[in-house]
Amino acid sequence: MRNDTQGIGMTSQRTRDRLINRLRENGIRDERVLAVLRSTPRHLFMDEAMATRAYEDTALPIGFGQTISQPYIVARMTEALLQKDIPRRVLEIGTGSGYQTAVLAQLVEQVFTVERVGALLSQARQRLSALELRNIQFRLGDGYEGWPKNAPYDAILVTAAPESIPEQLLSQLGEGGRMIIPVGLTQAQRLQIITRQADEYVNEALDSVSFVPLIKGVQ
């Protein structure tokens, strides 16, 4: 484990604790999720120039037109993923900085993560390796295609928004599995939970959200 995980000043544990208190005030109740967010060094998942803002409850740019998600959204999506039971195998679409991946990897048995931007995937792999998170498999690929080779998954978490739910991702969800996904155009996105029940999919709408779009292809 790197010796800079604790941070100083604006990245210190006291600053992190203030963030966790804000998340509680905003309705996050799962103590497992809060504990992982409290201990995960978000400042290591962005450029040093942005690190002093790491524990603000806001999304921040990470390059390539992508962002590191707002901590509340990371907590909300993770809490939704765990609301019935802890899934063993989780597919993440959109590795990005690797921060959401790190949170998942500390709560579930195995994470399969797909990223379309090679440079981001390489950075995330290095960061997660430095934090000694070994239960993650990485793939450079189109998020719309998922990762069929390792399907079915107990849960799928999507960190960018398609205009409609990709059929290929639904097909990779196991029986009783849940997918947490933002859906819609930029100005009208909703976070949704989709649960597979035999050959049917039950949809529950959650919060209004704002995510970068899910883009096809590999970069």
Question: Could you explain the architecture of this structure?
Answer:
The chain is α/β, with parallel strands linked by helices and 219 residues long. It has a domain of 151 residues: Vaccinia Virus protein VP39 (Rossmann fold), CATH 3.40.50.150. Helix content is 26%, strand content 27%. The chain contains six helices and nine strands; from the N terminus they run H-H-E-E-H-E-H-E-H-E-E-H-E-E-E. The strands form two sheets. Strands 5-4-3-6-7-8-9 form a seven-stranded mixed β-sheet. A two-stranded antiparallel ribbon has the order 1-2. Helix 4 links the parallel strand 3 and strand 4. Helix 1 packs antiparallel against helix 2. It is globular, with a radius of gyration of 16 Å. It starts with 12 loop residues before the first helix and ends in a 10-residue tail after the last strand. 42% of the residues are buried. The model has no long low-confidence stretch (mean pLDDT 90).
Question: Summed up, what is this model?
Answer:
With 219 residues, the protein is α/β, with parallel strands linked by helices. It is built from six helices and nine strands. The chain has a seven-stranded mixed β-sheet. Strands 1-2 form a two-stranded antiparallel sheet.
Q: How would you write the strand order of the largest sheet?
A: 5-4-3-6-7-8-9
Architecture (CATH level 2) name of the domain at 59-209? 3-Layer(aba) Sandwich
Q: Quaternary arrangement of the chains shown?
A: single chain
Report how far the terminal alpha carbons are from each other. 30 Å
Mind telling me the C-alpha Rg?
Answer: 16 Å
From N to C, what is the helix and strand string? HHEEHEHEHEEHEEE
User: Can you say what the CATH homologous superfamily of the domain at 59-209 is?
Assistant: Vaccinia Virus protein VP39
- Percent range for helical residues? 25-40%
Low-confidence sequence ranges: none
Strand element count: 9
What's the pLDDT, averaged over the residues?
A: 90
**Beta-strand fraction estimate:** 25-35%
Q: Given this structure, which CATH class of the domain at 59-209 is correct? A: Alpha Beta
SSE class: alpha/beta
